[in-house]
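Q: what sequence does this backbone want?
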């Protein structure tokens, strides 16, 4: 076995282990969001509320499926078999995943908006201990209001208007708002990355030399977006939101493989185009 063959096998193993870990995150996000869902106020729109409450779960599920589709198209299924019913099926599932990702983005945006309105607490926080109130520590992190922790709240305690019987310190509310905004920015950045990848794979790759200038511009935009995603991951790491940090780091690692797959696929198409031109 040559070193190149051994290296390729390790490359594939690490890649697929990464994909498995990303799939496990679907369950972790679901467990986290189902624990915080009971604090939301009913809006009357069950679908919109469900998307907002479980936006991270929906987002991760759709992205994992989209990731696997990219893997199938760029590294597993030969180009000569990507046609007919198989191609239409892949494109159909991709469209559904894209719709779910956009809906998840709207859910993140809705969650951020939910945390923006607040009002000052009237009276003492300790008087509400027996009424089943909760304290928002940060985004998706709630603890019951108890006789032990109610004393920490003074006259500047905030009532979170968009949540059911939830209060927070000004610092805790601000932290939740910032984390929710980072979710919005992170989601938007990933959507733009995939749009650029789609343009690169579907259009620029088949334009040949005429696309080089546009490809450089697209790569510059992608580097900016990847930089934004790295900053978001670092922010989550420093703020102690380990699941978001872990998930973001895994996705960045996974997209290294996707970019390598796209690069190899582009080279194959160029080689086939050059061969066809030489034959003709």
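A:
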């Amino acid at each position: 076995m040559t070193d190149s063959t051994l290296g390729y096998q390790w490359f594939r193993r690490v890649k697929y282990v990464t994909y498995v870990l990303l799939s496990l995150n679907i369950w972790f996000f679901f467990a986290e969001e189902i624990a915080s869902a009971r604090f939301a106020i009913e809006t009357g729109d069950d679908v919109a509320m469900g998307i907002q409450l479980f936006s991270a779960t929906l987002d991760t599920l759709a992205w994992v499926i989209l990731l696997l589709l990219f893997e199938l198209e760029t590294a597993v299924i030969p180009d000569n078999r990507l046609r007919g019913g198989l191609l239409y099926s892949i494109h159909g599932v991709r469209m559904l995943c894209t719709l779910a990702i956009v809906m998840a983005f709207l859910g993140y945006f809705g969650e951020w908006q939910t945390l923006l309105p607040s009002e000052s607490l009237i009276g003492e926080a300790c008087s509400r201990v027996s009424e089943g109130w909760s304290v928002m520590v940060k985004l998706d992190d709630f603890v019951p209001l108890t006789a032990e922790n109610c004393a920490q709240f003074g006259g500047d305690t905030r009532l979170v208007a968009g949540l059911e019987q939830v209060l927070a310190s000004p610092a805790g509310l601000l932290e939740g708002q910032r984390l929710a905004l980072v979710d919005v920015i992170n989601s938007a950045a990933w959507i733009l990355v995939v749009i650029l990848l789609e343009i690169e794979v579907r259009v620029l790759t088949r334009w040949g030399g005429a696309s080089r200038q546009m490809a450089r511009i697209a790569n510059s935009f992608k580097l900016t977006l990847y930089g934004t995603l790295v900053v978001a991951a670092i922010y989550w790491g420093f703020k102690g939101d380990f699941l978001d940090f872990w998930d973001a780091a895994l996705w960045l690692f996974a997209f290294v493989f996707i970019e390598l797959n796209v690069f190899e696929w582009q080279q194959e198409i160029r080689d086939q185009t050059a061969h066809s031109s030489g034959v003709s």
